[in-house]
Amino acid sequence: MQRILTLLLVLSWLGLSAQSVDLTYYLPDIDYDPEIPTPESFLGYQIGSWHISHDQQLMYMRHLAELSPRMSLRQHARTYEGRPLVHIIVTSEANQARLDEIQAEHVALSDPEQSGRLDTEDMPTVIYQGFSIHGNEPSGANAAPLVAYYLAAARGAEIEALLDDLVIIFDPSFNPDGLTRFSTWANMHKNENLTSDSNDREYDEAWPGGRTNHYWFDINRDWLPVQHPESRGRIQTFHDWKPNILTDHHEMGSNSTFFFMPGEPTRVHPLTPKMNQELTGKIADYHAEALDEIGSLYYSGEGYDDFYYGKGSTYPDANGCIGILFEQASSRGHLQETDNGLLSFPYTIRNQVTTALSTQRAAVGLRQDLLNFQRDFYRQSMDDARGDRVKSYVFGDANDASRTQHLLEILRRHRIDVYKLDGDLSLDGKPFAAESSYVVPVEQTQYRLIKAMFETRTSFEDSLFYDVSAWTLPMAFNIPYAETGRRDIQGEQVTGLMDANEPAVPQQSNYAYLVDWDDYYAPKAVYRLLKAGLRAKVASRPLELEGERYPEGTVMVPARNQDMSGDEIYELIRSVSQSTGVEITAVATGYSPVGPDLGSNDFEPLELPKVLLAVGEGVSSYDAGEVWHLFDQRYGMVTSKVDISSLSRVDIWQYNVIVLPNGSYSRINSVASTIKRWLQDGGTLITMDRSAQWAAQNDLASLKVRKPTDEKDDDKTRRPYAKANRDRGGKVIGGAIFAIEADLTHPVFYGYHQEEIPVFKRGTIFFEPSNNVYATPAIYRDKPLLSGYLNKIYEGKIDGSAAVVVSGVGRGRTISMTFNPNFRAFWYGTNRIFLNSVFFGSTISGGTVETED
């Protein structure tokens, strides 16, 4: 009998895995409007039989919005690949008729000056439901058509009452580009006779996988940095509505079950109000009841946290909203054998549908609690701001307007009020000029988010973090900033995303032009000039010319003896300056009373960078994507992405720069000798963390790894078994901000003006300083931690270690870093270190590099 029952259970699972489910498997068995097509009738297959592609999903959403008076569809952005990002506003037909009024009243609830006059008893709640921000976590995006159908077609008193009291911002696909990659992979490898064997190709995505967006970014980490179109459109929609709940549907490992918030109680950001977590717990009761009803296993209160405000489930917590994370065990395709039995794709979708509907019920059941919390959140924020000893943050960089403007842009996208400084000011010994500095008063509704962006924090209740432990934005931009107790320093308010930043139009010269390397976009300007065929050189020492001082790193373009006429050169110079915002100065003489003349050998010739970016299995797709995005989107530079499995067949001598992002390169050990010959011929190799270790092991760099922990120093006191995972996790450097001390005369640091530079560091790889005293242009200062968590076992052991080492192999240079200079596209402050390595690596003197000898 037991065998028969087991066989019947397996057969039932296999029947389900063969996609023989009907609509009632997913949705309540109630009356539906026959004029509204089901997903199956529209697509030609039942949801779960195949992985829906973004274009199919989009067509269905548009069709529903055309047919249903409960729905209005709006486009809020386009992806890098041109796919529309849309959301549907779902509410009752009566509410649709006065949608603008409802929206304005709801947003007013977040304004303490207006919220007192509002009666929450009759206001609908607003929720934002978003699906599959990771493209290869597809159960959410496949659940979205079913939930949308329910909202459009369900009939009866329950749905009518729900939509009277609720406005839903329904975002069916957070990441269309990633979803498209993954759905294509899963469908093209699907078997007619489904296999649950995890070794099957269906469950082994090719690099880089569908998790990320076009440039391989995890856009669930971009809610705060807002560097990508998906995030920018989403954040604008969020603030246009100020929802009460935001849900974020994800997937996790196949051997798990189903998770919903709240997460670890000790890992909630201290700026998040306790009532936020209390309401999260009340909402969780609705999810538990719904999952109990269908017999799904689940867990809550562990594993995930609410600390980093850059995630979808946590960003809302700093904005008067309740962020809810859902994590469903993933089938990764159509069927998986797991610790919990066979896991089918339809089963994963059903759990996402179930909790999407339970969220809607919670939003109505807790309607006044949520609305009153939102009003109280902003009232309390203003009270806390008034009691804060800090009244304003001041920031600005007189040397680089572009970086300052991009920080300003992030603040404004989050609806933070920013003002120009009303006069020159000195704070903490730092000068802030009125024409280049800005003020962020803390006494505004976004107080908590402002504090999270500007504060530094080095003590924590917990030692584990699901993501980074620090993200202080002025440090990320390497922009001077200070806090002050003064309120009376505000000038004109900034009303747009950025201030106008237009350089003066350069005059025409018959002698030379000097490009200001201080500006963030100087590499873009110089690249365009070199690509057009002009010769250029970089100053290795500061100089004075015609009464102006020019630092090392200034790029000189002769106006004569080029392959263009003087007028053609000037027209190109003028165009490049205006389009990049970089100041280019015309000079009439090459004579410098202080420093080298323009014809001196202290001006080193530059080559047009021809970059090979290593990608493929073993390489961190995140780190590679950051480099690709930086070159492609910020600097307009041509980049060849070459799979490391192809390196043995590629003529690498057609490139003069090779970038090896962080990753494992053991599979290409056989190519190391070829790269070494290329280096000996004068190439520049750029390595980071593990790729630097690989380079050292293969005689491509001269590095000695420092071990910041020593087994003999470990405490051998007995510990409980239950503490093992926590103890191990606490030793990880998951993401913190450290201070390095840089040699500003070194080509890798041209354009910097302060020796201390904040860098973002993950992982425990550190290097010893080089034997050649000139080959370590940057070290970690004493007590280098600026913000974030660092286990006490590292105290004193990172200090003085090398942050950058330059090795020499023949005429070539290998530049190795122990930090990520391009982290998540918002670490603008260290992008210059990376670009300097690209443009100036070949100019580094042979006597100043570390060699095997």
TrEMBL record:
Gene3D superfamilies recorded: Zn peptidases (3.40.630.10)
Pfam name, any one: Peptidase_M14
Keywords: Carboxypeptidase, Hydrolase, Protease
Alphabetized CDD domains for the sequence: M14-like
Domain Peptidase M14: 60-289
Amino acid composition bias (Basic and acidic residues), ranges on this chain: 707-727
Organism: Flavilitoribacter nigricans (strain ATCC 23147 / DSM 23189 / NBRC 102662 / NCIMB 1420 / SS-2) (Lewinella nigricans)
Gene Ontology BP annotations: proteolysis
InterPro entries listed in its UniProt record: Class_I_gatase-like, Peptidase_M14
Protein known as: Zinc carboxypeptidase
Keyword Kinase: no
Highest taxon listed in the record's lineage: Bacteria
